[in-house]
Design goal:
Layout: E1 6-10, H1 14-26, E2 30-34, H2 37-46, E3 51-54, H3 63-67, E4 75-79, H4 84-92, E5 97-100, H5 105-122, E6 127-130, E7 133-136, E8 142-144, E9 147-148, H6 153-164, E10 170-171, H7 172-179, H8 188-206, E11 211-214, E12 218-221
Parallel strand pairs: 1-2, 1-3, 3-4, 4-5
Antiparallel strand pairs: 6-7, 7-8, 8-9, 10-12, 11-12
């Protein structure tokens, strides 16, 4: 039972929500429900669904407001709003798909199945890997060369961001901006020291230098 995929339905229309819930349970999914944007955030604070179906017209916080809070979860917008501009904005804003109401349940189930497969293959799973480093975003455990690496919150936040963007240089300002969500105790002056400590710990575990400084710009993962 533990491997059932969890799908969060965020819709204040009880009839549509019930229909979706019944169809999803018949397909073997676990279902979570939220009837407003505020309630959705409450559910998300205690559980991480594998995919969410999001209505836009919600009481309180609307669908656009909470989409930005749902990073790392594939979101299919299910809405009666059908204008193209709106669709484009939402897809750029992080949604993986847009289904217009009224919809065929079989089509929606097919799209759900496709996006769950994509999420697995793209690593919206809980593990990030680079070389011999494995970082688990659920447990915050990090291994390098098969050995556990004990990181501070700041070092973990830096490594996570670099591993999420393995092919590009992450600028210092972006690092400071993003990791402040995970850890408040990093400043421009201390960033270099945190990165230096992180490099040292990874080197001690796996005998390899995984992070390179790009002078004057920021840091990136070092390819073999």
């Amino acid at each position: 039972m533990a491997n059932l995929k969890k799908i969060l339905i965020i819709d204040d229309d009880v009839y549509i929500g019930n229909m979706l819930e019944e169809a999803l349970i018949n397909e073997g999914y676990q279902v979570l429900r939220a009837y407003s944007g505020t309630e959705a955030l409450l559910v998300l604070s205690g559980a991480k669904p594998d995919l969410a179906l999001l209505d836009l017209m919600l009481p309180g916080l609307n669908g656009e407001d909470i989409l930005s809070e749902m990073k790392g979860i594939p979101v299919i917008v299910v809405s009666a709003k059908a204008d193209v501009e709106n669709k484009v904005d939402l897809l750029l804003g992080g949604a993986v798909d847009y289904v217009t109401k009224p919809f065929h349940i079989k089509e929606l189930l097919a799209r759900i199945s496709v996006h769950l497969r994509n999420a697995e293959s793209m690593g919206i799973s809980s593990e990030l890997t680079f070389g011999e480093i494995v970082l688990n975003t659920d447990s915050h455990a990090v291994k390098a060369g098969g050995r556990d690496v004990k990181l501070t919150r700041t070092e973990y936040a830096i490594l996570k961001l670099l591993m999420q963007n393995p092919a590009q240089v992450v600028t210092k300002s972006l690092l400071l901006d993003r990791i402040s969500e995970d850890t408040p105790d990093c400043t421009e002056n201390s960033l270099k020291m945190h990165v230096s400590n992180l490099r040292k710990k990874l080197r001690e575990a796996d005998n390899r230098d995984y992070i390179e400084a790009v002078w004057g710009i920021g840091f990136k993962m070092r390819a073999e």
